[in-house]
Write a structure and sequence with these properties.
- By secondary structure, the chain is α/β, with parallel strands linked by helices.
- 60% of the residues lie in helices and 13% in strands.
- The chain has 7 helices and 5 strands.
- It has a 5-stranded parallel sheet with strand order 2-1-3-4-5, with helices on both faces.
- Helix 3 (62-72) packs parallel to helix 4 and helix 5 packs across helix 6.
- The longest helix is centred in the last third of the chain and has 46 residues, at 112-157.
- It is elongated.
Length: 194
């Protein structure tokens, strides 16, 4: 685990927060911040921009879980939640909200490091999958735009699909632009003129 990670601990009990910070420091973490009241989580995240948010809740309800998860922005950082009790619905709510690690049976000091390592690994995996999904969606959208542009050229110039694509490529090269940019401009112009 990277020792330079910034960790925000959300723990209402001051003694327990101290124990958590001590356990993290013993694990080599030096940039650890504590927050006593979850109500200040959004502001604290803006101020210190942590890599990981570690939240310890005794008996959460669904609204609290969803609120804390959303405020923690689990798409931007790993979020690990420790709860004393849960049920299937709460577990699903936490995972659906993007929590990287949802640990039942409370926070044990000897489990902090492996749980955080797991949370970071899961977060990185989810981030990579999201990035790949976004790239696939973008490629599909670009492909549809290029196909529309080729269709416009084929109708207007009476050319084949291959010739239409060649014209898009040549125009892009001549203008120092990407094929998708030329295709998008053509589709936009055609939409304006129709």
């Amino acid at each position: 685990m990277q020792n330079s990670l910034c960790i925000l601990v959300v723990e209402a009990d001051a003694d327990k927060a101290r124990q958590i910070i001590d356990a993290l420091c013993e694990a080599g973490m030096t940039d650890v911040h504590a927050l006593a009241h979850p109500g200040g989580l959004e502001r604290a995240i803006k101020q210190i921009s942590p890599d990981i948010v570690l939240i310890d809740l005794a008996n959460p309800d669904r609204d609290t879980l969803e609120h804390l998860s959303l405020v923690s922005d689990p798409k931007a950082r790993a979020v690990a939640m420790f709860v004393d009790q849960t049920d299937d619905e709460l577990t699903r709510a936490a995972l659906n909200a993007g929590v990287s690690a949802y640990v039942v049976d409370g926070l044990k000091m000897n489990r902090i490091k492996p749980v955080l390592e797991t949370a970071i690994a899961r977060f990185q995996l989810m981030r990579q999958m999201q990035s790949e999904l976004d790239a696939a969606k973008r490629a599909l959208h670009d492909r549809k735009t290029i196909d529309r542009a080729k269709g416009i050229l084929m109708r207007q110039r009476g050319c084949s699909e291959e010739e239409a694509y060649g014209l898009l490529r040549k125009t892009a090269m001549d203008q120092g632009r990407k094929v998708i940019d030329v295709a998008q401009a053509l589709v936009t112009a055609a939409d304006l003129l129709s």
